[in-house]
């Protein structure tokens, strides 16, 4: 970004168009997203919001996102045409929980929700003001029609949304989007098997100021996964530092609802955390409440619903054993004909090979084959033996009931170049599963709660932002 006092516009380059579910778009439109870290606009000592500085940043961000549309390289002409026609942007927020903590307001309180709505509406209104100013200089979005659009001309048809900010919130060291923090204390494994307890920066800073922060307290919080119930912490601060699991379903949805009604043009990415005891009726009631709160979308997650989580959460009841996940010892007889898909891979030596994945009507992988082009005059003997043998072993494991995820885990444990056999096969399986109705998701190794999904060549957790590219 370059900007001068005399320059009314920003110049930008190297911007990638991103698509996501919280953007409500017409066919062939594209997402153009940016998020402001609200935690940077509150004075830690006085808890006062710097509204003037926030206004300036919102104006700058609106101009920046509008310029992205003009300098972007679109993949196909149809997307370019629609994007330029409506010029929609998605200016969002992150670090909302940090903002409320510094304002000394509990996330799960009416006061906290009202303050959240106030700052979200402020972001929207200032973005709208700047978009209207841009329209006076550059013209409104081309699809604007004063006989249909009963509002003053503006540069962008839509202005705000709340997208997931997993990776960028990690870089900014703030809470993700409008989510409450998932944990206040996390455990990191370092060299020589040592463990390091890491606390939320505001918890540590406030705890030291209020004289309740100790290493012993961190260990207690780590073991219970909550700040609630520790006598060392004043109840006032326990309420303020409540995390996702401590907050009721009702309070989660109320926060999403009030934000949706105050300043969010598109939609909101947010997870509604349900306790392990949640029933089908509880899930139904959550969606009905979301509808009543005028949320445009809702995502729920029941604590402990994944088998793997019991190994990582000390206070989570173990879910019932899923018989489908148990290893079978009877070799499965396959149909004579199975549908399949062929993929071409290239190794680090720029040699190509073909991998065929065969699956049943439920899209469950049953067999994997590797084959090579023999007409290229290259000596593929050793390489072909390695690839075909590995695929035969994988096929045998699948026929004896070994879950494909267990095979992927073993491939991921192998070290080497990204173009080596284990990494190539792992990435291929994840990519294949992500496109089927079975989907691909595993428990996040970092936050121990969110689900890792495979997107654009990377495994990502949208709850905490952890990612691993392959």
User: How are strands sequenced across the largest beta sheet?
Assistant: 10-11-12-13
Beginning-to-end CA distance, first to last residue: 30 Å
Give the helix/strand class: alpha+beta
Helix content: 25-40%
Order of helices and strands: EHHEHHHEEHHHHEHEEEEHHHEEEE
Beta-strand portion reads: 5-15%
Name the average pLDDT. 84
Which ranges are low-confidence, i.e. pLDDT below 50, for 5 or more consecutive residues?
A: 1-19, 308-328
* Main sheet: strands, sense, barrel: 4 strands, antiparallel
Number of helices, counting only DSSP H or I runs of 4 residues or more: 13
Gyration radius (Cα, Å) is: 25 Å
Features:
three-stranded antiparallel sheet; 13 helices; 470 residues; four-stranded antiparallel sheet
Short description:
The chain has 13 helices and 13 strands. The protein has 470 residues and is an alpha+beta fold.
Description:
With 470 residues, this protein is of the alpha+beta class. It contains 13 helices and 13 strands. It has helices at residues 51-71, 77-86, 96-102, 110-138, 166-172, 201-209, 215-224, 235-240, 249-261, 280-292, 381-399, 404-413, 421-434; strands spanning 33-37, 90-94, 185-189, 195-199, 271-274, 299-302, 340-346, 352-359, 365-371, 441-443, 451-455, 458-461, 467-469. The protein has a four-stranded antiparallel β-sheet with strand order 10-11-12-13. Strands 7-8-9 form a three-stranded antiparallel β-sheet. A two-stranded parallel sheet has the order 1-2. Strand 5, helix 10 and strand 6 form a beta-alpha-beta unit. The radius of gyration is 25 Å and the shape is globular.
